[in-house]
Amino acid sequence: MKLSRLILLSAIGLATMGASCSEERATEQEDKDPQEPVATTPQEDCQPIDRGTANSPEQKPTFEGQTRACEIKSETAIDVQVLTKNLKKPWAVEPLPDGNLLVTEKGGQMRLVSATGQIGTPITGIPKVDARGQGGLLDVALSPKFDSDRMIYWSYTEPRQGGNATSVARGVLSEDRTRVENVQVIFQAQPTYDGTMHYGSRLAFGPDGMLYITLGERSDIEIRPQAQQMNSHMGKIIRIAPDGKVPNDNPFVKKENNLPEIWTAGHRNVQAAAFNGQGQLWIVEMGPQGGDELNLIEKGKNYGWPTVTFGEEYSGEPVPGAVTTKEGFVDPVYYWDPVIAPSGAQFYTGSAFPEWKGNLFVGGLRAQALVRLRIENNRVTGEEHLLKDREQRVRDVRQGADGALYLVTDQENGELWKITPKQ
């Protein structure tokens, strides 16, 4: 039986370089919340999804329902249409208003895929990426005014002198959808670092019209403390205007030695982010082993990493100096132990699946599933793992204008799926 984290703290010091994330382990390398817990659906007479032994069985949730919610099952039968099997390590899918889809491939290509699965040639004008390790061409998002400005935004690992870091660019998609024009780099995460892990990153436009960018803390033990340092973008969520300018109402704009783009701090590696129908930003964060987190993002708050976290290092050692809850840091709404390795998120708002309205869908890499969460009063009251029988690592999930869900899988011959009700 493992010793508790508190007993081990004096012995570990700064030991362990086991900083690889849950994504890597499944591939070749790859102020405490002031709101009191809200009463949710009773957890009696139900069972959580059987995912085997916990990674950190000695850790205890901070409040009831924070982990292993009741298993729920969709009543609507689903149909999975495989649109293509010929994508190269796809990372993101973004449905266009006309039913076609933009797909990024980790190696640096962005492609248009037709509604019936025909793959276009790479779109020209995309800057060079550093595709080593977890790096490459990452997320893509449409401008809120795409119908009129045809602007698209993408995040990528930018090669720089002395290393790399996550950057965000934007450009106008040509009318024939073959190239991006007037490309501008509107954000460059600092500092540059010579590493290959934990870049984030998802892009999400809020109802305020601002662009929210999720960033990783670059994993290695010497840089991860920067998630708590406000003069670094590492381990932060960033909020900027669509042109890259800093909004005046960002929480740290006028604070000395604080980067003004920062919205929240204390994140490990966020590859899933989405706004719900109430305008709330939710993220699903790759944590250490036994510590993937669902967080409700609030302006100016600190989410703990690496000071406060569930889970342990992938070596099996405790995270140095960490505790699972602490005054002044926000507790996660939910955590997974064992991990699911979350990537991609979408709140369902369509009419094709009425029973899914308001549910959060999360891609699961380690879980090899599409994870559905029922959230009530900002608490998770049910969890379902869909598409397990396909044994595929789900990298991203988005909703199309038709109410279907579109998924891409994380593999060399990546697939694009369309999920609709079975007729």
Describe the structure.
This protein has 423 residues and is mainly beta. Helix content is 4%, strand content 34%. The protein contains 3 helices and 23 strands. It has helices at 5-12, 22-25, 146-149; strands at residues 78-87, 90-95, 101-105, 109-113, 137-142, 151-160, 163-173, 180-188, 203-205, 211-214, 237-240, 262-264, 270-275, 281-285, 292-297, 334-336, 342-347, 360-364, 369-376, 379-386, 394-399, 405-409, 414-421. The strands form 6 sheets. It has a 4-stranded antiparallel β-sheet, with no helix packed on it. The chain has a 4-stranded antiparallel β-sheet with strand order 5-6-7-8, with no helix packed on it. A hairpin with a 5-residue loop joins strand 13 (270-275) and strand 14. The chain is globular. The N and C termini lie far apart (50 Å). The model is unreliable at 1-43 (pLDDT under 50).
Largest sheet: 4 strands, antiparallel
Number of strands: 23
Shape: globular
Residues in helix, %? under 10%
State the order of secondary-structure elements, H for helix, E for strand.
HHEEEEEHEEEEEEEEEEEEEEEEEE
Helix/strand structural class: mainly beta
Average pLDDT, all residues? 91
Instruction: Report low-confidence residues grouped into runs of 5 or more.
Output: 1-43
Strand order of the largest sheet: 1-23-22-21
- Rg is 20 Å
Number of helices: 3
Q: Ends: how far apart?
A: 50 Å
DSSP strand content: 25-35%
Q: Can you describe this structure in just a few lines?
A:
The chain contains 3 helices and 23 strands.
